[in-house]
Design a protein that fits this description.
This protein has helices at residues 30-35, 47-65, 85-99, 112-122, 153-162, 174-188, 202-217, 236-246, and strands spanning 12-15, 18-21, 71-75, 103-106, 127-132, 146-150, 167-169, 197-200, 231-233. By secondary structure, the chain is α/β, with parallel strands linked by helices. The strands form 2 sheets. Strands 6-5-4-3-7-8-9 form a 7-stranded parallel beta sheet, with helices on both faces. A two-stranded antiparallel ribbon has the order 1-2. It starts with 11 loop residues before the first strand and ends with a helix.
Length: 249
């Protein structure tokens, strides 16, 4: 083959789809740079590498959930304590959704999420947890049968909507509100159709509903019909009946 160092530099260089000529030719090859173990590691923090991580998260999520049967995503506070009425309501909702033929998807954490996963597991249903990397992350709760952990919120949120036929939203904080208004926006803008959203707990959600009606709608920032995008109830049976009816089950 001869000594590569003795060969004259090429006049044209092909780097995948890129062609370089004259003084734009770079030394070495892509494989050579890949296999070279020396050099800094700053490249793992660059935006192109982040794009690959984001892509891999979508691929992993799609692969793990592609064969999931009809499912409902249940949201609520990670701070809900076991034994409280809210926690027990989450357990009952998880069980009732399984009895209605749904898998149950949550954020995989403690509190209300754990309650819904527990109810689904106790009813011998499919219990799914979609976790997120956080500084105070506690890991997936023990009642999750299929778990996927994500780095990026927006990838995780896509999975919540793509693989669910509706949302049941228990009392929760900022993360719960984020998921709720994301879903409302997608339905309002018709990015998704036939997507029921049920808020569980009239006392908890009443103030928000009043604000939407008396301030947001009243000032023309939303229309009156937008208040029909969700339902509010205190009854487990009604919550399940609403999501079942709207998805045509």
């Amino acid at each position: 083959m001869g000594n590569p160092e003795a060969q004259s530099p090429p006049e044209e260089q092909h780097l995948g789809p890129v062609v370089r000529r004259r003084d734009q030719i770079t030394p070495g090859t892509t494989d050579q740079r890949l296999l070279d173990t020396e050099g800094d590691t700053e490249w793992v923090h660059t935006d192109p590498w982040r794009v690959m991580r984001i892509q891999s998260e979508f691929v992993e999520g799609f692969g793990a959930l592609a064969e999931l049967p009809s499912a409902i995503s249940v949201f609520g506070s990670a701070r809900t304590k076991p034994g409280t009425p809210e926690y027990e309501a989450g357990v009952r909702i998880g069980k009732a959704l399984v009895d209605a033929g749904f898998a149950v998807i949550t954020g995989g954490g403690p509190g209300a999420m754990e309650a819904a996963n527990k109810g689904a597991r106790e009813a011998d249903g499919i219990s799914v947890g979609l976790g997120i990397e956080l500084p105070f992350e506690q890991g997936l709760n023990p009642h999750v049968d299929i778990g996927v952990n994500f780095r990026y919120f927006f990838v995780r949120k896509t999975m919540f909507v793509k693989y669910a036929q509706g949302f049941v939203v228990l009392p929760g904080g900022l993360g719960t509100l984020d998921e709720l208004f994301e879903a409302l926006t997608l339905v309002q803008t018709r990015k998704v159709t036939r997507f029921p959203i049920v808020l569980f707990g009239t006392a908890y959600w009443g103030g928000l509903v009043d604000w939407l009606r008396d301030t947001v709608v009243a000032q023309g920032k939303a229309s009156e019909k937008d208040l029909l995008l969700f339902h509010v109830t205190d009854e487990v049976e009604e919550a399940v009946a609403l999501v079942t009816k709207e998805v045509g089950r």
